[in-house]
Amino acid sequence: MLKTAVLVSGGGTNLQAILDAMDEGRITNTSVEVVISNNPGAYALKRAEKHNIPALCLSPKSYDSREQYYQALLETLQSYETQLIVLAGCMVVMPKAVVEAYPNRIINVHPALIPSFCGTGCYGLHVHEKALERGVKVTGATVHFVDEGTDTGPIILQKAVEILPKDTPETLQRRVMEQAEWQILPQAIDLIANGKIVVEQKTARIKE
Predict the structure, then answer these.
(1) CB-based contact 7:106 (threshold 8 Å)
(2) Is residue 64 packed enough to be buried (19+ CB in 10 Å), middle (13-18) or exposed (0-12)?
(3) What angle do CA 49, 176, 84 make, to 5 degrees?
(4) What residues contact 194, with CB distance under 8 A and at least 6 apart?
(5) pTM for this structure?
């Protein structure tokens, strides 16, 4: 059983997709041991409580320094014997200490087809605004491992979503979530939990 921690900052729709997939048997061999948010008002924490999952708020504002916060985060993850960290709409950049403690054991879902519209400053609605400004015809979502860079880790899964003529950043964001994020994030977790992902020379591949 893969012991998983889910890190969130907001409403938790990706968390809900994970929980639904577990209930429906699309994610196997996995348990969500804890949900952690940097935001005390995150509705994701309530979603966790409804599933009887420990829901914790670790806010940087509660610590004297970022280093203390990072240490507390790492110790909390370790206390739950975490084997996989899932960033599901988490606005906190993972510190070096956590990345080093969990090599190829942290995954993130990004609302674009990396390497397009990614990196520093590209998060949330900003990603969809940039896609529409550029005039691309296809966007999508990417699930990738987290390394020391920003959106630079090995890509696990991607799914394309067509951009429609009348799209706004808001409508595009919703469709990317529904058609891509909520599908490939649970799929990636299930693949990892069942030993189907291998990382070789910075490239992730799925075992046959």
Answers:
(1) no
(2) exposed
(3) 45
(4) 28, 29
(5) 0.95
